[in-house]
Amino acid sequence: MNLTTKINLILGGAFLLGLSVVGINSYLLTEDNALQQVTDQAELIMQEALAVRSYTVNEVRPLLNQANDGKFHPQTVPAYSATQTANLVRQSRPNYSYKEAVFNPTNPRDKATPAEEEIINQFIANPALGKLVGSQQVNGVKSLYISYPIRITNPKCLACHSTPQNAPAAMRAIYGDKGGFGWRLNEVVGTQMVVVPYTLPAELARKTFVSFIVSMAVIFLILFLVINIVIRRLVLKPVSQIIRMADETSKGNLRSTEIKVTGKDEIAEMLHAFNRMRRSMIKLVQMLKKMQAQAKTKT
Q1: Could you tell me the pTM of the whole model?
Q2: Each residue of 145-169: pLDDT tens digit?
Q3: What is the set of domains in the chain, with CATH numbers?
Q4: Could you tell me which residues come within 8 angstroms of residue 188 by beta carbon, excluding any fewer than 6 positions away?
Q5: Residue 33: how many CB atoms within 10 A of its CB?
Q6: Residues 6+ apart with CB under 8 A from 179
Q7: pLDDT over 70 for what percent of the chain?
Q8: Are strands 97-102 and 188-197 parallel, antiparallel or unpaired?
Q9: Chain centroid to CA 37
């Protein structure tokens, strides 16, 4: 095995070892970053939903109520506005979903699942709890969720949710009088949730990791080629010259020119030393030949 092969094997082994260590650490880091990115996006959607709810209560509802047309306008309901807006956002972010899950909803689509009921019960058990972040199975897929409690803090909400008799007749005509009643002030009745499958951060982490590994491989290939070129020019070429010169000298060829030396590094010093040794050997051979010639003349 020649020196070039040994050097390449050492470089390759060092690269594989380093890539393995860096790859594991980078994958864990990119996975955490991707999860944080998805969480931040989910939090943003949640804040948008909260803003829409507030806008509906403070801006939209007063205007529509001034109409006094005897009709019930779902657009005055904060949950309706937030859900509709979230569905529009979902057109550009299909992996994110928003739901207002309630124990006893007016609209049957807002009925809480057993998993969502557990989250609501946590808010009820701990009134100081303002947000929950966790994971649950949604249609068999492990998903990340961010959840806020729906708490009745505005007495005006009880006009539609206290008793069926107090609710607008137009609302009961649409949704009936079986759900969405019996709510009390400061009571937690449900939860706002933004849900995203874990496949999304996993896919983001995979893409980032693959891009990083490919970049590392390209960098290594460039370094590998540069190191090989440098080693060939600075080390292997001078060594090959010494081998060739030593071989010629051993065969008695003392007329070849000395190795040309450039630079002042260790390789240059080795070439200077070899040239001095060769000159000394030539002188020694010449002296031996002269002594042999003198011996012959005496005899």
Answers
A1: 0.62
A2: 899 999 888 787 777 888 888 888 8
A3: 29-206 (3.30.450), 214-298 (no CATH)
A4: 120, 123, 124, 127, 149, 150, 151
A5: 14
A6: 104, 105, 106, 107, 108
A7: 96
A8: antiparallel
A9: 9
